């Protein structure tokens, strides 16, 4: 069974930054597409970004230019650097195995709240 340890969420003011981390185990992390997804209050899941084993990345238009996804295969860890945060970025953020339309499992989530 896939194990996930997510961290880095919290309360931040608009314009601020946060870095999310996600350590995964029990699957071949280094060869897997990995994604970040989020769920805002009262809304459905929204795909945010993904990265393949070679480091190629994709972003949702809503976060392009502000968020950066990265990975450390030696540590089986996925990251999401979030800059210029907006109130509409408030959500529970999940790391997931897979890519858009093909997610196979995800973690327990970490809360990000952007508010003054």
Explain what the structure shows.
With 116 residues, this protein is an all-beta fold. Helices cover 0% and strands 54% of the residues. It has no helices and eleven strands. The strands form two sheets. Strands 2, 4, 5, 6, 9, 10 and 11 form a seven-stranded mixed sheet that branches. A hairpin with a 5-residue loop joins strand 4 and strand 5. It is globular and about 40 Å long. The mean pLDDT is 94.
Label this structure with key terms:
116 residues; mainly beta; seven-stranded mixed beta sheet; four-stranded antiparallel beta sheet; 0% helix; 54% strand
Low-confidence stretches: none
| Counted beta strands | 11
Chain-averaged pLDDT: 94
SSE sequence, one letter per element:
EEEEEEEEEEE
Q: The biggest beta sheet, please?
A: 7 strands, mixed
Rg from C-alpha positions? 13 Å
Q: How many helical elements?
A: 0
* Helix/strand structural class: mainly beta
The helix fraction, in percent, is under 10%
- C-alpha termini separation: 39 Å
* Spatial shape: globular
Which helices and strands, and how do they pair?
Blueprint: E1 3-7, E2 10-12, E3 18-25, E4 34-39, E5 45-51, E6 57-59, E7 67-72, E8 77-82, E9 91-99, E10 102-106, E11 110-114
Parallel strand pairs: 2-11
Antiparallel strand pairs: 1-3, 3-8, 4-5, 4-9, 5-6, 7-8, 9-10, 9-11
């Amino acid at each position: 069974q896939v194990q996930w340890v997510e961290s880095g969420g919290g309360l931040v003011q608009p314009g601020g930054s946060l870095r999310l981390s996600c350590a995964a185990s029990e699957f071949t992390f280094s060869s897997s597409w990995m994604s970040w997804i989020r769920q805002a209050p009262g809304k459905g899941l929204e795909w945010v970004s993904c990265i393949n084993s070679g480091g190629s990345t994709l972003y949702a238009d809503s976060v392009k230019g502000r968020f950066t996804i990265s990975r450390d295969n030696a540590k089986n860890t996925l990251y999401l650097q979030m800059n210029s945060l907006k109130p509409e970025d408030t959500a529970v953020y999940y790391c997931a195995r897979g890519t858009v339309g093909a997610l196979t499992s995800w973690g327990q989530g970490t809360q990000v709240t952007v508010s003054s």
